[in-house]
Input
Amino acid sequence: YDDFVKQTNGRNPQNMSSTKETPPGCAGDNTPPQVLSTIPENNETGVSLSQNIVIVFDEAMDTDTAEGAFSIDPDVSGKVFSWNASDTQMTVSHNDFLQDTLYTVTISTGAKDIAGNGLDGNGNGSTGPNYVFSFTSIGMDGSGTCSVNPNSLERDTYNTFDFTYTAEVDLSGGQVQITVPTNWTAPGPWT
Output
């Protein structure tokens, strides 16, 4: 703040008007911060299970208070917070979301800018309420197609097959069921 006053004599350096101003984030800043955007967006569906949560604020934040004000329901484990150089963008990495699940993210008014102003969650110029957005993670319903390479068999030729899916597939159960058409004849004994 002192450097700002010395360099500009307290005047707006953009137009050098005679009106003295206090730079954002310094003593005298009483404008509460707001959320400009989020990833995922509010009400987005089909969100990837590994999608980071990104929240962009309109001014530099006190990172500790913003991280403490963050919550997600249902909770996800492995949350790690990171910030851009100007402390206006918070990224939350985490372990995978559950499939086909509605998540609600809340940034409470405990999130403060560097001047100590609490979050303006509805854009009305004053602190409060909390900022809330929701999204739904992708569901893996097994729809889509699967191609197999090689697509034909010769006896004792192949012992490995590559399966390519056009939709995300959950293989966490450790087993995959393959249905063979009734008119298909195996090339030989399976071992």
